[in-house]
Input
Amino acid sequence: MRLYFMYELVHAYLYAEDGGQALHWMSRDGEVSPRSPAHLIDNDERRLIATARALGVRTVKVERRGAVGQHVDLWGKPLERAIRRCERVEPVEKRTLSDVWKRRKATGQ
Output
């Protein structure tokens, strides 16, 4: 699982598109805190649900099911656990989301 911050959403989507799990940690006030919500993004729905449960999410609701950015919302203790599991890398993606959507359209996803 890789950690991405507020303005790295596209990088998080691209990492998930390549088969990884991305934690996109948001903050409305510009400060990242444990009270800031996050999205656990994963295109593998079964792995997404299993990870959410392992983090302690009681009721798992998959948002954007089957679409780019499929995710589960995290906050509180499950978010703290997810952050501890993450690796942080500097995004160097050259692709864009339009590349992802074109590839999905071409393959019928």
